[in-house]
């Protein structure tokens, strides 16, 4: 039996590398190096200088977050102009309101980078490991982010931030979605929203083809350039949950939020903008 057709079929199943693949691989690695270097410079040089300028604590905090946001916008710009990725962000002008809870799904490693880059002054609940990383711990400490340690202190810190009319970014999944696995929402976002949020605004994040997921290293880049789509949705209505006891209300809101994201992300999207 001739094996050549089977070899040809196997070759055809492998996606063809396009869009300057080797250049994108280099730019992806360079971008991660730039991110680490930038985090060190921002956290140990720029943010301490900002914090030294006399002002009220909330003014210092906002200045520090604006500096971080500008640095992250530069990072996204390098990746975009370097042809490592493309992106679209619709409705960003509705983000950054006082007391606003921004909830988003979490398909890739840099979702939080996009949101922080385009919502200057926002706080964020981020993974606790960033405080153990010598490159990032100074930055997340100085901008007063909140670790997602799944304890009462996280809920209290996030509630206090919203009560102070800060904008807060929260990923209800707590970590990146595993490819081909359903999203799992934890109740923290719903609990905090019912305690103190003036509004809850969803952001739907898609990335095609997938990259920087939970299951793959940074250097396993896709065959073609990934496109990130961030769409700001309509605010979620909290009024049906206000009169119920908090444990029951937060469970119901979490389930409704999860269904809402599933439905919206299942909608077909048009081509790239």
Write up what this structure looks like.
The chain has helices spanning 4-13, 21-52, 57-81, 111-118, 137-142, 152-163, 188-196, 246-266, and strands at residues 86-90, 100-104, 123-126, 146-147, 168-170, 199-208, 227-232. A seven-stranded mixed β-sheet has the order 1-7-6-2-5-3-4, sandwiched between helices. The model is unreliable at 1-11 (pLDDT under 50). The termini are far apart. It is an alpha/beta fold. It is globular, with a radius of gyration of 20 Å. It has eight helices and seven strands. It has a domain at 86-136 and 144-266. The longest helix has 32 residues, at 21-52. Helix 2 (21-52) runs antiparallel to helix 3 (57-81), helix 3 crosses helix 4 (111-118) and helix 7 packs across helix 8. Residues 100-208 form the Phospholipid/glycerol acyltransferase domain. Keywords: Acyltransferase, Membrane, Transferase, Transmembrane, Transmembrane helix. GO terms for molecular function: acyltransferase activity.
What would you call the shape? globular
Query: Would you tell me the overall average pLDDT?
Result: 92
* Main sheet specs: 7 strands, mixed
What low-confidence regions span 5 or more consecutive residues with pLDDT below 50? 1-11
Strand order of the largest sheet: 1-7-6-2-5-3-4
Distance between the termini: 49 Å
Structural class of the helix and strand makeup? alpha/beta
Task: Kindly state the percentage of residues in helix.
Answer: 40-55%
Strand content: 5-15%
| Number of β-strand runs | 7
Count of individual helical segments: 8
Radius of gyration: 20 Å
SSE string, helices as H and strands as E: HHHEEHEHEHEHEEH
């Amino acid at each position: 039996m001739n094996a050549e057709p089977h070899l040809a079929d196997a070759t055809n199943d492998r996606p063809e590398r396009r869009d300057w693949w080797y250049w994108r691989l280099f730019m992806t690695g360079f971008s991660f190096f730039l991110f680490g270097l930038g985090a060190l410079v921002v956290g140990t040089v720029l943010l301490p200088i900002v914090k030294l300028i006399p002002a009220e604590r909330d003014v210092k905090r906002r200045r520090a977050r604006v500096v971080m946001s500008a640095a992250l916008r530069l990072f996204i710009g390098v990746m975009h102009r370097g042809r490592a990725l493309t992106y679209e962000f619709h409705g960003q002008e509705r983000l950054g309101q006082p007391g606003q809870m921004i909830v988003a799904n979490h398909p890739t490693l840099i979702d939080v980078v996009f949101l922080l880059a385009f919502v200057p002054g926002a706080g964020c609940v981020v993974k606790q490991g960033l405080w153990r990383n010598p490159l990032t711990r100074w930055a997340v400490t100085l901008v007063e982010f909140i670790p997602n340690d799944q304890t009462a202190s996280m809920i209290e810190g996030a509630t206090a931030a919203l009560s102070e009319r800060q904008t807060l970014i929260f990923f209800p999944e707590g970590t990146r979605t595993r490819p081909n696995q359903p999203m799992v929402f934890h109740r923290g976002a719903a609990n905090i929203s019912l305690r103190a949020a003036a509004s809850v605004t969803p952001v739907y994040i898609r990335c095609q083809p997938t990259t920087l997921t939970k299951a793959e290293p940074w250097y396993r880049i896709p065959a073609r350039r990934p496109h990130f789509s961030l769409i700001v949705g309509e605010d979620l209505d909290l009024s049906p949950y206000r009169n119920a006891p908090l444990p029951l209300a937060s469970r119901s809101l979490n389930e409704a939020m999860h269904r809402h994201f599933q439905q919206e992300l299942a909608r077909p999207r048009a081509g790239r903008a």
